[in-house]
Amino acid sequence: MTGPLLVADDLHLAFGPTRALAGASVEVAPGEVLALLGPSGSGKSTLLHCLAGILTPDRGEVRYRGTRLDDRSDEARSRLRRNDFGFVFQFGSLVPELTALANVALPLQLTGARRRAAEEQARSWLERLGVADVAGKRPGEMSGGQGQRVAVARALIGGPRVVFADEPTGALDSLNGELVMEEFTAAARDQGSSVVLVTHETRVAAYADRSVVLRDGRLTAAPAWA
Amino acid sequence: MTGGIRGPGGRVRRARRALLTRLATRCLVTAMALPQTLLGLLEPAPRHGYDLKREYDARFGEQRPVKSAQVYATLGRLLRDGDITVVGTERVDGPDRTSYALSAEGVTHLERWLAEPEPSTAHLQSEVYVKVVLALRSGRPAEQILDAQRDAHLGVMRGLTARKRGADLPTTLACDFTLFHLEADLRWIEHTAARLHRLAEELS
Amino acid sequence: MNRPGRRGAAVLVVRLALTAVRRSPLPAVAGALVVALGVVVLLAGLSMHPTAQARGAADKAAMAGEFAADGEPGLLIAHSSGSYRDRPITASLVADTAGGGLVPPGLDRVPAPGEVVLSPAMRELWSDPGTTLAQRYPGRDVGTVTRAGLVGPGALVVWIGVDRDRMPETRVVTGFGGAGVADIADMPSELRLAVPLLVIGFLLPLVALFLTVATMGTAARERRLAALRLLGFSARHARLVAALESALVVVPGVVLGCLVFRLAAPVLAPHLPVRGGVWPDHVFFSLPVAAGLLVVLPLLGTAATWWALRRIDVSPLGVVRGAGDRELRRRRLLPLGAGCLALAGSAAAGHGADDVTLAGALLLAAVVLLLVGIVLAAPLLCRVAAQGLGRVLPGIPAQLAAARVRRDATGAARLVTGSALLVFVSGLLLSFFPLLETGNAAGLRALRDTAGGNLLVADVQLLDTAALAELRADPGVSGVARLTQVQISDGAGQGGPLITATDCAELSGVLPALGGCSAGSLLLAPADSDAKAVPLRTDGPLQAVTMVESADGGSLDTVGLGPLTTSEAPRTSEVLGSLDELTGGTIGLVDVSALPAAARPTAAGGTLLVRPAAGSAELERVRTLLTRATSAASVLTVDEQVAEAERTTQTYRDITLAALGCAALVGVLTLTSTLLQQVREHRRALVALWMAGMPRATVRAATLLQSSLVILPVVALSLVLGLATATTYLALADGGATRLPWAAIGVVAAGAAALPLLATALTLPALRTTTHPQLLPD
Question: Transmembrane among the record's keywords (chain C) (predicted)?
């Protein structure tokens, strides 16, 4: 496939009187790891949510593989999340009642896989990310680093085209954060998934192929080494 | 992009390579950018040497005091290179005072220096700070100086992060040393960027 | 692109919900218990009518239904009512006229004179000498009344064989049950109407509470839903999951409720406080009804959750509640205003008596509009109250409470919606009470006021003079008097009004309040009383009309009365009027000494009044003596007769209060569990307050105040509206003659206000365990 995988074109979005996005544009190439950097309130998470079809911009458009994403129905966007996207958030993207193994197996089951097969694959992902020992634990019973590794495994297991990661290491110390990032980006690159990474930490952004900086709802400059 | 801050990609890439080389050898050069600073101070209007020293001390002297002889020697070198020209001599209660002005070549040199990101050094922020102040005084977009610096730093960080992949522990820790320093610089850049407007107001 | 397999998704959803229940079982178990309790109440309500019908049918089958003229083969039967320690006794004298082979239901043979047949419950009492029942209904125990002759397992029934010539009854019974028996209803028509109303009245707050719980939700559920949305569940799908989850709580609740009812009803039915208890198989638990509940209630719960979540955006980023207070528009007051207008319109139409149909329709519309209006207006009212009180009340707790209510008035109002509806509905339900108290009971209550409630009254079947003498001599008896009826004439014609003949000396002993009745006196009721519709001249000589029996039948004769002192005493009219209740309407009292011998009372007929000695604990013994003296006639105290007459009202009151009590119980349970969850979820805010130096007591006070801020105005509003509606309804129903049971309604309102407060108070201990600094970092 040629051309960008995901395009945001002049997005505007306001929450009441608060302007979150004011003309943000960005492109994500297939297989690219892109970091969205910026201070708190710069609109980087909002941009990620718009790119993932979770939020709908007031103005501007989001295109995924050449077609509009922002005007699709909730049903269609949910299908995209199921089949094409993966997510790693700072907190709570795991289902609190399910074990690590069941959480990781969930995306496969949602797309119709049998439980046994899904769990087998989930176990190998947990092993790959070095958290096979927490397979039977629930999110509340794991450390932050283990939880984020499980979340990474769950985001990648379905072989998504894009993984959206919002401050994936926000709750971790710097060493743990780097280890998670290392494993996350390596695994994503291995299977050719693009990654949209929101962070305010430059060392985390350094794991990306490219960084863009948001301030006041728009990008500060065009990419320097595109 | 306007203002000539960002040069053609080739030049930046060269600079980046040079920077990486320097970092890899861990040869941290402390470059005193006195000539370029004097060019910047001369830009608004012609000055004589004593005036230049006074303004330099007022603006940057706290961090790096400069001797008069250093200023005159540098002015002589700049005059020799054609970056400045003599515009007049006057005598006021004492020695002769020569006024200098920026030449067209001097402006080019100044702009190139402003546009070029600095390598990471222990005194980097001073260097960038000087650039930001000078840009603000001259009405140039100082934000772009910070953006360029951030991009350059991020590029270096990406390079170092890539180097760490699969590297042995000494190399990893060496890279981390630089990464953390770069991160500190970037934080300063973010703080400055967030308060550029107020800085411009206070400088004017 | 493949859709999640429907089966796979369903299995996943169920698994998720089950895991959720396993992980935090308390809310789910509490929810299921609440539903189970609701189901038990619902089943009880639903089985009330069929049970009453079954009892009615059983009664009917045991009643004499075919009759023949005297002399035909058949049975002579005389029923009478007795009582033993507030348990009604049915005693029946029976005599076989010609051995026709007819046997009353439940008996295997007709008892011969001197024999009795007893129901099992009766035998238990009868064989205990302390009860004196064996003396009251003497005879040789020759058999047991089986189920066919009993309305309930605890029914006290005795069949007494007597000589044919001692029977006061002359109609010959030739068959039981069938078409000849008048349709008797165990449940008055008002109650038949009330049962569905009660069910609705109970269900409304229940549904409101369902909605409350569904909307309040839990943080865990919201995290789960958000995580599922992120994984690709659509918003509809996520709502469906939530709805199914609520169904998963409701279904076990319904099953449990049905099971409990199924198991408990047969055990409890015989002990129900209704006449004779209830046969277990008269309590209808039909599988179709249970299956219906199993479908309807989960659907209701699911629909409620679905509806409640419609306003809530379950986004992949978490659950976003509606914009909340900004959305509180004035137009929320419209239904309430419309309801008030409809009520006023109904009152006006009813007052002018122009159009009762219109007034009724307007009233119905008003009830519906007000029910909706209260729910819609409650958040606004809460916010206004919070704003006002927050300004007026001093202290940090008040400020904190007001701020919390202002921030989420809609959520706060939900706490009280169930209670508010309960108050409104109960106002309507309780206004039925006064309507049910019929004139019959009013006359008996007047008798109780003038004669005292412990006065024993017996209809004389055949007076046993020996037993009567024993009764008079008994130390437990302070007075005995007999009332009979005599027809008198002023000579203008043979027909004349009835007058009550009694021994004035004896009667004054029984009824000290009665004045003007002495030897040789004639005491006439006041001139305006109904009984004097037949004119009687008292200035001339009066005659008693007597029956002269002869071989070829009987003829009427008149005999002159002795010298009389005639008086008309208005002061005694109340006693006289209330005596009418016993004698059936006469023009007054005449002392028996004034009657000619031919007109004196015979052994049969009349009424015997017995005043037990003050404070006598031996009422049952006296009753036994009296029963024997009157040949097993009905012997009841005035109190018992009043209770019998008010049985409908009483039953209705009991049912209503039971339903309200159950609704209140369900309410407290639901609210407590929901509030507990809320406390848990807000624990970080609470800990923060505590860490900032706010004492726990202040946090508690603020929590209680917060509930009061919400409860008091809303409950007050529904109380006022409920009373207004009830008043309008009563005015429409009987022209405002009856008064509202203010006390009962006040108690219900106070209870409804206390209910959410109680629920809040129950959560206060949780604040202690919740406000622990270790909980601060989640």
Answer: yes
